[in-house]
Amino acid sequence: MSAAREQILARIRDAKAGAKAVEYGAIPRHYRRSGTLDAEGRIALFIDRLHDYNAMVYRTTESGIAQTIAEALRARGKRRLAIPASLPEAWLPPEFEFVRDDIAGAGLSYAELDASDGAITGCLAAVAFTGTVILRHGKGEARRALTLIPDYHLCVVRADQLVETLPEGIARVRDFRRSPLTTVSGPSATSDIEMTRVKGVHGPRTLDVVLVG
Predict the structure, then answer these.
(1) Average pLDDT over residues 58-70
(2) What pLDDT, in 10s, does the model give residues 11-43?
(3) Which of 115, 138, 140, 190 could form a disulfide with 179 if both were Cys (CB 3.0 to 4.6 A apart)?
(4) Are 126 and 10 in contact (CB under 8 A)?
């Protein structure tokens, strides 16, 4: 073993031996943990972030959800959508075909999900500062495959689910920490070593958000 490596390991051992256990709640947190914007300010920031990510945002009221979803689907040329078993019937416009992914039964196969025109889900929470939608994959919710395999995702976000900062978002989902969660900040995209941007590598290439309230 080299002298340099032995010295590094010795320092690590000394640090571990002298370290005192620190209670989680006592850890200093000097970052901003709460927002300062009012409701309309949060909404404006959220929409701005989503537009930066090339996501489309539609604003509507509770009674206009189905009509707004129809508008978004017509704009994208979508006809047959996969949806979680728990998605409210009142959200679904009649002129489209919706296939429920009932995971209590067999559920849709990966091939069936891939063959759909996209997926529609709700969300658990959303963060304005990062333009992030948080999806829960617990009982009665959309499973991860439903939100990752189809090439198009339409997500319904209520204004009262929207917080300003990430710490506030984490606080919103704290009670569901044992459920699988997915965070979505715009359509899936990545860049290779030559900085060639590719969409749809890790999830849908296209994201629409219907913002209610």
Answers:
(1) 97
(2) 888 777 665 656 666 777 777 778 889 999 999
(3) 138
(4) no
Sorted by sequence, the CB contacts under 8 Å of residue 100 that are 6+ apart come out as 82, 83, 84, 85, 87
| Model pTM score | 0.81
Tokens standing for 157? Answer: 């976000």
Q: For residue 189, name the pLDDT band (cuts at 50, 70, 90).
A: confident
118 burial type by CB count under 10 A (0-12 exposed, 13-18 middle, 19+ buried): buried
Residues in the chain: 213
Burial class from Cβ neighbours inside 10 Å (0-12, 13-18, 19+) for residue 18 reads exposed
Q: Under DSSP, is residue 88 helix (H, G, I), strand (E, B) or coil?
A: coil
Q: Which two tokens stand for residue 180?
A: 């699988």
**Tokens (6 digits) for 32:** 């901003």
Helix (H) or strand (E) holding 140: none
Strand ranges across the sheet with 97-101: 56-60, 206-212, 152-158, 118-121, 80-84, 97-101
The pLDDT assigned to 58 comes to 97
Q: Could you say which architecture CATH assigns to the domain 35-212? A: 3-Layer(aba) Sandwich (3.40)
Could you say which DSSP state residue 132 is in? Answer: E
Domain chopping of the chain, boundaries: 35-212
- For residue 203, the model assigns a pLDDT of 75
Tell me which residue of 121, 116, 98, 113 sits closest to 145, measured CA to CA.
113
Tell me the torsion sign for CA atoms 174, 141, 135, 59: negative
For residue 18, give both structure tokens. 């002298």
